[in-house]
């Protein structure tokens, strides 16, 4: 059975995976690559991807996903919603993006078939910054396929507080384990299908 891990338990699992020969970079690679692979299996033709990234490692997962999308020859764009001061692992994945991936400012986002929310994951708590909330409000009204990595941005992974204008997904990829919030019916309404991906 898929386990349910709090944020602290998830960090302990990651640390143990690294202590036994893994690396944080490999965990991030697996998260983004396996989310991309699941998405590829859902579509028969190329889809236009937009990845919204924050500054933390959730954004790094999104950058890995964008790289795999572009390497498959499908169009991909990324937007660094909270600036370019990224976590070291995310910065490495930004530097690794192929030139075909467009990097766009939030005020110039293209029409897309699939929008991936990689703004906040397990490191999030509180309320959404006003600019993020405004963008989520706009995206939640659009008709494309909305995908959240680990947790829809705006939702606290441990206790499930739902901030105003939280991202509303059709698919949420939970990494390695469900988080307590995934089990709450009011949060499930924001997650859509919750698919747990092994990232070891
Ligand atoms: N740690 C690891 O090795 C791995 C982490 N993974 C991914 O990393 C995520 C966790 O990454 P992080 O711990 O970097 O956290 P996040 O990427 O969820 O976000 C952390 C950032 O958001 C900021 N923040 C939090 N609440 C905020 C608020 N209300 N308003 C504005 N800023 C806010 C924090 O100050 C921090 O800069 C997971 O959900 C998962 O997607 C995966 O890549 C697998 C490996
Ligand atoms: K997210």
Automatic annotation (TrEMBL):
Coiled-coil segments: none
EC identifiers of the protein: 5.1.99.6
Stored PROSITE patterns: YJEF_N
Cofactor note: Binds 1 potassium ion per subunit.
Source species, domain of life: Bacteria
The keyword NADP appears for this protein: yes
Residues that, per the record, bind K(+): 58, 117, 153
Molecular function in Gene Ontology: metal ion binding; NAD(P)HX epimerase activity; nucleotide binding
Residues covered by the YjeF N-terminal domain: 10-200
Pfam family, one: YjeF_N
Residues involved in (6S)-NADPHX binding: 57-61, 121-127, 150
Reactions this protein catalyses: (6R)-NADPHX = (6S)-NADPHX; (6R)-NADHX = (6S)-NADHX
Cofactor or coenzyme needed: K(+)
InterPro entries with a match to the protein in the record: YjeF_N_dom, YjeF_N_dom_sf, YJEFN_prot_NAXE-like
First-tier enzyme category under EC: isomerase
Annotated keywords: Isomerase, Metal-binding, NAD, NADP, Nucleotide-binding, Potassium
Membership in a protein family: Belongs to the NnrE/AIBP family.
Function according to Swiss-Prot or TrEMBL: Catalyzes the epimerization of the S- and R-forms of NAD(P)HX, a damaged form of NAD(P)H that is a result of enzymatic or heat-dependent hydration. This is a prerequisite for the S-specific NAD(P)H-hydrate dehydratase to allow the repair of both epimers of NAD(P)HX.
Protein name: NAD(P)H-hydrate epimerase
Organism: Paralysiella testudinis
